[in-house]
């Protein structure tokens, strides 16, 4: 089930889109990077952790700001074209 629960500003959407794309890119890099280059691997792990934290903080902040409906085991997703937020379960 997917239910429209809110909308964010274009600026807010841009912020989460940058984090989303960065996190996805880091996850793809993690799939091909080996631990042979320990320095690069450690930087990747640190960057992925930091980006994932910022990603979750954005969702927490927006949920508090806009008071979106939530449900146990549900999550929100954003439509980057319309800035609409959906509750998905």
Structural notes for this entry:
The protein has one domain. The mean pLDDT is 95. A three-stranded antiparallel sheet has the order 1-3-2, with no helix packed on it. The chain is built from two helices and three strands; from the N terminus they run βααββ. Helix 1 (10-32) packs antiparallel against helix 2 (38-66). It has 89 residues and is an alpha+beta fold. A hairpin with a 4-residue loop joins strand 2 (75-79) and strand 3. The N and C termini lie close together (6 Å).
Features:
89 residues, alpha+beta, elongated, three-stranded antiparallel sheet, single chain, 58% helix
Brief overview, please?
With 89 residues, the chain is an alpha+beta fold.
The rough form would be described as elongated
Summarize the main sheet.
3 strands, antiparallel
Strand line-up of the largest beta sheet: 1-3-2
Regions with pLDDT < 50 over 5+ consecutive residues? Answer: none
Number of domains: 1
Q: Helical percent range?
A: 55-70%
As a percent range, the share of strand residues is 15-25%
What is the count of DSSP helices, taking H or I runs of 4+ residues?
Answer: 2
Q: How does the helix and strand content classify structurally?
A: alpha+beta
- Radius of gyration from CA coordinates: 15 Å
């Amino acid at each position: 089930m997917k239910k429209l629960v809110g909308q964010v500003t274009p600026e807010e959407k841009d912020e989460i889109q940058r984090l989303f794309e960065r996190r996805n890119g880091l996850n793809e890099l993690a799939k091909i990077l080996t631990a042979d280059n320990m320095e690069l691997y450690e930087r990747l792990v640190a960057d992925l952790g930091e980006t994932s934290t910022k990603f979750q903080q954005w969702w927490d902040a927006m949920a508090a700001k806009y008071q979106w409906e939530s449900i146990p085991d549900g999550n929100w997703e954003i439509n980057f074209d319309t800035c609409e937020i959906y509750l998905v379960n």
